[in-house]
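Box S2. Input/output pair 1.
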Amino acid sequence: MTTHSDDVAAVNETVATLLNRRSIRKFKADPIDDDTRAVLETVAQHAASSQYLNDWSAIRISDPSIKAKFAEIGHQPYIAEAPLLYLFILDEQRNARIAERKGVDTSSPDWGLASSYRFTQAQNDAVLALHAMETAAYSLGLGCVILGSLLNDIPELIKLCHLPKYTYPVLGLAIGKPDQEPALKPRMPRTMQFFENQYPAADDAASLDGLEEFDETVHQYYDLRNTDRPVDAFSDQIAKVSTQNVNDKSLLDKATAQGFHLEK
């Protein structure tokens, strides 16, 4: 059955690239040339930025020993094999230095760029920049995987990359020439994620229409990381994750240690 999205993808390369996006976890050993890298980094710089603060940065990881540590933190060996590896960070340190040049006292508890609002906006900016780079990489025939797993040990990331006060790790991004072709992961019905004017009431059963069919579709999907069995149904995945203890992954204490005031 041909859908409207299929029609759009047929005439728009950007949409086709986005609709065919899939995480790549196995890369060829070929390095990424400097010109391509420059294009990817420049595209990231052109992403939207809240109030034009440019309050993010990215650490390019080329040291094999640091790559190996990243792989250990993420419990994913392929991280160490990525030809191009970045850690995107929210960055108010640069803005602190700039403000200080203009006579601003950044040690004041009222210094605005250390607030929870700016922390969140800077985090958003870093994600937008990463996504722009990821999309550009896919459009150039490369493959990527976003690495939330690096946040398993934030203090170690801070130590490894010498992240100063007013910076904080957000996500990693591994890029390379794909050496696998995973199937597209199923997406839930749009009616479960897009609403008109307001969020559905909690007792609105219709808002979950299509869940059973989606569960079955997901269950028929085979992930290349475990090809001998189908993936758990979506509902089962949600139930499992919702009962996991993540107290050791708290944000507030680690962000406070980096100079941020998330209580404000």
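Box S3. Input/output pair 2.
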Amino acid sequence: MTALETWELRAEFARRLSAMYGREVPAYNTLVEVSTEVNEAYAAKHGAEAERLGSIARVTAERHGAIRVGSPKEMAQVARVFAAFGMYPVGFYDLRDASSSSVPVVSTAFRPIDGAELAKNPFRVFTSMLAAEDPRFFDQELRVELAAFIGARQLFGEELLTLADKAAADGGLAADDADRLLELATAAFELSGDPVDYEWYKKLEAVSAVASDIGGVSTTHINHLTPRVLDIDELYKRMQDRGISMIDEIQGPPRWDGPDLLLRQTSFRALGENRVFRYADGSTSEGELRVRFGEVEARGMALTVAGRDLYDRMVAESDARLAVAPAGTTRVEVAAGVWAENLPRTEKELALQGLAFFTYRLDDAALDSASLRSAPLAGTASLAGLVEAGIAVPEPIVYEDFLPRSAAGIFQSNLTEEGSKDEAQLGTSYDIHRMSEIVGSEVHDPNDLYQRQQDASIAALAHRLNITITH
């Protein structure tokens, strides 16, 4: 094994986690197999258009993982581990009020933030931290017990953290160190065979199955690993045809006849896994837990702040219409109608209305057209004018992040009980700034990253045309 650069470490980390998770959850292998089949069929049917939002090689290799930790200390340590792989915190997600079930976590996602790094390998890990201080979920006694239990465990050993810090500082590792880092990092997210304290686990499960999965065991583990698919509706159908039990519906935007936007997700239902339980009298026996599931995603275009505002209004309108719709009407059916009424159906119109993020490519043929030769560009031009003239061609920027409601919906769909939540209590305050303090580095705002990418392409276009481009 030769020395590995950061992106190579990241790619190998994703590959090893995928192999490990496939051994632990064999249905995940079926999900990957069907995803690959769907992507190949979609590419054969749509040709170059299939790669509009990323090359087939990237899409087929793409994964996002999900893990859960219990405290700010653990969150800061996992941030050090992911930094070794060029994965940095992006976005803040508060799932505590994003669904009707009790989901007492706040989250960020660790991923590459540079376009070139994303193109090489876009592995990302949605990382949730138990909001163990929130009195709506945990009373004073339980908060003290949780702090003691989580404070006594060690998820990430010193050797792993030291190697991770070295990899982050040096932009990679020499062969032996790289192999050891990958070995330790992969093992840190392996499902443990340690006995689970039955009474303690059940005490937390009464609050939330997510809480027991985080604070009721001695280690963390991959909760799900998600391939990316180009036609999620076809994937959903094929999985059902294979006898795999899927959650009731696809989360996120509906299928419609316009451009793919943001993120659509679905999963197969959590499967029963054998675990050893330890009881108060010291005895042990095998039992079953259902906490891990297989998720799949289809990524669309990143929306601007204005686009997200419109998206949020459409979600609210869909909810309002569904509430008064005839029995049997699905959310997806209602949302498709709302989308058709409110959204432009072309990328060009989304660009002109400032609803989505794009990079802009120069069309030399349009620039050399007869009409422009007689009236050459000079001084200043508007971006909209260049797009209308076909000189600036908008190329969509892929949405690399997550939707709180969809994430909570996936969690909720795989829970067997609603859990409990005391709405009379005032919830603990978390936001992107507090999460930055917790992880020990800036949590990047996704919109800033997309805007930076768009602005850079406009600046490059202006330089090539030797003009100033106004918005």
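Caption for Box S3: Residues 26-46 form the longest helix (21 residues). The two ends are 50 Å apart (CA to CA).
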